[in-house]
Amino acid sequence: MRIGTDLVEIKRIDRLMHEESFLMRVYTKAERELADRMGPKRRAEFFAGRFAVKESVAKAIGTGIGQGINWRDIETLQQENGEPFTRITGQAFARMHERGLSRVHVSISHAGGLALAFVVLT
């Protein structure tokens, strides 16, 4: 079992999300499509929460982003009830597998202009 957490300023992501190159580099097509269905305030929270998940997963794997792990290797969507779930692909998946990890448990919170993600890999 490994854990990772990250805290992101929503305002920072709100500024960055207006740059198409940032969105294309960091978020999967499915993440962008899900965000497009939300209002402006919720959209910034959504992207900030997903950014925090990506960082948290990379920290839990033990590499951080880079070293072959791509932002889009870590995708967080939501189930019908709104519960987030995370899919790992590419090098991130390979690194998890090397460490004997196969499941991702994720929690995302937003408060006071911040987005927090907490991840447990088992």
Automatic annotation (TrEMBL):
Entry binding sites for Mg(2+): D6, E55
Record InterPro entries: 4-PPantetheinyl_Trfase_dom, 4-PPantetheinyl_Trfase_dom_sf, ACPS, Ppantetheine-prot_Trfase_dom
Protein name: Holo-[acyl-carrier-protein] synthase
Gene3D superfamilies the record matches: 4'-phosphopantetheinyl transferase domain
EC assignment: 2.7.8.7
One GO biological process term: fatty acid biosynthetic process
Subcellular location: Cytoplasm
Family: Belongs to the P-Pant transferase superfamily. AcpS family.
